[in-house]
Amino acid sequence: MLHPLLLVAIGGALGSMARYGLSALIVRQVNPVDFPWGTFGVNILGCLLAGIFLVAAEQLPAVNQEARLFIVTGLLGGFTTFSAFGIETLSLIRRGEMLIAFSYASLSVIIGVCAMWLAYSTIKAILS
């Protein structure tokens, strides 16, 4: 059995390489003008794969903690953290916590983009 950190590291490296390769392929095929099709495609595929894995983890006893660490935390985490966001939001919805799910999803996007804008603007102003 591999150490949990090694499982995550290997999965993360493979997921990151897959994200880069697939995103580049999508961009070459679609040739986006104003829409980030590569990232969008990777995020949607990551959520689709996470949904498939969630069913497999529920239905198949062979899916153990090591497989979850490698696939969800490592592979899908390296492929897209959007898949983790999707899993957490779906978990809240499945528990009937709609207000929390909506708040989490909305605030994550809004505050995340605002935090990035704030950091970008601040650092750019300091360096100018």
From TrEMBL:
<keyword id="KW-0997">Cell inner membrane</keyword>
<dbReference type="GO" id="GO:0046872">
    <property type="term" value="F:metal ion binding"/>
</dbReference>
<feature type="binding site">
    <location>
        <position position="80"/>
    </location>
    <ligand>
        <name>Na(+)</name>
    </ligand>
</feature>
<dbReference type="Pfam" id="PF02537">
    <property type="entry name" value="CRCB"/>
</dbReference>
<keyword id="KW-0472">Membrane</keyword>
<keyword id="KW-1133">Transmembrane helix</keyword>
<comment type="function">
    <text>Fluoride-specific ion channel. Important for reducing fluoride concentration in the cell, thus reducing its toxicity.</text>
</comment>
<dbReference type="GO" id="GO:0005886">
    <property type="term" value="C:plasma membrane"/>
</dbReference>
<dbReference type="GO" id="GO:0062054">
    <property type="term" value="F:fluoride channel activity"/>
</dbReference>
<keyword id="KW-1003">Cell membrane</keyword>
<keyword id="KW-0407">Ion channel</keyword>
<keyword id="KW-0406">Ion transport</keyword>
<protein>
    <recommendedName>
        <fullName>Fluoride-specific ion channel FluC</fullName>
    </recommendedName>
</protein>
<feature type="transmembrane region" description="Helical">
    <location>
        <begin position="39"/>
        <end position="57"/>
    </location>
</feature>
<keyword id="KW-0479">Metal-binding</keyword>
<keyword id="KW-0812">Transmembrane</keyword>
<feature type="transmembrane region" description="Helical">
    <location>
        <begin position="69"/>
        <end position="87"/>
    </location>
</feature>
<dbReference type="GO" id="GO:0140114">
    <property type="term" value="P:cellular detoxification of fluoride"/>
</dbReference>
<comment type="similarity">
    <text>Belongs to the fluoride channel Fluc/FEX (TC 1.A.43) family.</text>
</comment>
<dbReference type="InterPro" id="IPR003691">
    <property type="entry name" value="FluC"/>
</dbReference>
<keyword id="KW-0915">Sodium</keyword>
<feature type="transmembrane region" description="Helical">
    <location>
        <begin position="99"/>
        <end position="120"/>
    </location>
</feature>
<feature type="binding site">
    <location>
        <position position="77"/>
    </location>
    <ligand>
        <name>Na(+)</name>
    </ligand>
</feature>
<keyword id="KW-0813">Transport</keyword>
